[in-house]
Amino acid sequence: MTSQAATQVDRYARSAAAFAGAKAVMPGGVNSPVRAYQAVGREPVTVRCGKGAVVTDIDGNEYIDYVLSYGPLILGHAEESVLAAISKAAGRGASFGMPTEAETQLAQAVVDAVPSVEVVRFVNSGTEAVMSAIRLARGATNRPKIVKCTGCYHGHSDSLLVQAGSGATTLGVPSSPGVPESITSNTLLIPYNDLDAVREVFQGHRNQIACLVVEPVAGNMGCIPPAPGVGPNGQGYLHGLRELCDQFDVLLIFDEVMTGFRVAFGGAQSLYGITPDLTCLGKIIGGGLPCAAYGGREDLMRQISPDGPIYQAGTLSGNPLAMAAGLATLQALQEDGVYEQLESTSARLEAGLRDAANAANVPIYLTRVGSMLGLFFSETPITHYEQALTCNTDRFAAFFNSMLDNGIILAPAQYEAWFVSTAHDEAAIEKTIKASEVAFTAASKVK
Ligand code: PMP
């Protein structure tokens, strides 16, 4: 072993030992697959703590963090007002299974923030939020079929765990053993950013489709913004979806688990000026604690039990700690200048990454909507999943590994978005850009 390699091994020695122990008792050593780092050919670091924009691993290495728990931590780690709210709530008891005032306070904050949401129900994860919204759409319309875009991720519930097929309107094939085809055969797939495909699938299944569910800014095949300029009046993809859903009487569900409170306080729907029928929220809404929600038109939401017959429940739903963390986070986000700061920090990061890639002569396609970014190792623009799959993932792995070794932690796959928090200051961004110069050079050596 060279001395440099030995140093790298020493640098991660405790993480390596911890991960060996983890693998013995948990599948892949993790509780969510991407955390195992398989896409980048190494083992993960094990985290000890986080503060602000920085996480520290159990070997004592510090990293500027663009994972941010895959999106929730828009204020950074262990933010003071969120911490205070959680500890105050914890002191009063962790869970009751009875109404608390905090639930109404967060519900009111969500209704005030998200334009289309009139009534909201809290759940514990994004998966649950989308699964429940789909049940509501099916129950309210009495129709079985749903439409989703290839490459959009809506959690791991059976109906939605369907990946790309070829062609415009492929019938759903399950992405995982254990998901019956009898369920996914009701899931119709279309490519993202393609309105003709929507029209075709709607025409082919008239009066059978309950809803179309979409990430208004795709964030699970990298970050892919909705196409501008397309659709009937050139108003863009999301406007086009709204029009087609109205025309064919299909409910439009925005999965804003990632984009809610992220791309704008009111989510993508406020940024792009679209009113979906139902909206799913998660991540930021719980300030880092397990919390998600679905909400929307009152006439639909009143069909949820116990107001209506469509059943959905949860022992820990509306958990007081999660409500407190969510409320503190939303309050902090409403202070003057927060989104302007996120925008300028993220714009500086975007520009710096672009310059660094140019200098290293590495073709990239870089996207950004507010504080959400996507870095694709691609010579051509990426507007949907099949294109995303053509990216050079080996180059990404080289880039990722160099960044990690130089104190910058990214989600370990090209198909994850980067997130910036209010705790990322100028120094953190400049350090990231410096590290990227080395990392792009490393990537440039990979074919
Ligand atoms: N929808 C979207 C858009 C997501 O990004 C995610 C998670 N990344 C989910 C749903 C599922 O959320 P959870 O992991 O909390 O179940």
Descriptive overview:
The chain is an alpha/beta fold. The protein contains 15 helices and 14 strands. The protein folds into 2 domains: 3-65 and 337-444, Aspartate Aminotransferase, domain 1, CATH 3.90.1150.10; 80-333, Aspartate Aminotransferase, domain 2. Helix content is 38%, strand content 14%. The strands form 3 sheets. It has a 7-stranded mixed sheet, sandwiched between helices. The structure holds 4'-deoxy-4'-aminopyridoxal-5'-phosphate (PMP). The site of 4'-deoxy-4'-aminopyridoxal-5'-phosphate has 16 residues, from helix 5.
The total beta strand count reads 14
Q: H/E series, N to C?
A: HHEEEHHEHEHEHEHEHEEHHHEEHHEEH
Which class best fits the helix and strand makeup? alpha/beta
What name is given to the CATH topology of the largest domain? Aspartate Aminotransferase, domain 2
Percent strand: 5-15%
Bound molecules: 4'-deoxy-4'-aminopyridoxal-5'-phosphate
Mean pLDDT: 95
User: Between the first and last Cα atoms, what is the distance in angstroms?
Assistant: 25 Å
Number of domains: 2
Which geometry do the CA atoms define? globular
- The CATH superfamily name of the largest domain is Type I PLP-dependent aspartate aminotransferase-like (Major domain)
Major sheet details: 7 strands, mixed
CATH architecture of the largest domain: 3-Layer(aba) Sandwich
Q: Taking Cα atoms only, what radius of gyration do you get, to the nearest Å?
A: 22 Å
* Low-confidence region ranges: 164-169
User: Which CATH C-level class of the largest domain is it?
Assistant: Alpha Beta
In DSSP terms (H or I, runs of 4 or more residues), the helix count works out at 15
Identify the strand order in the major beta sheet.
4-10-9-8-7-5-6
Helix content: 25-40%
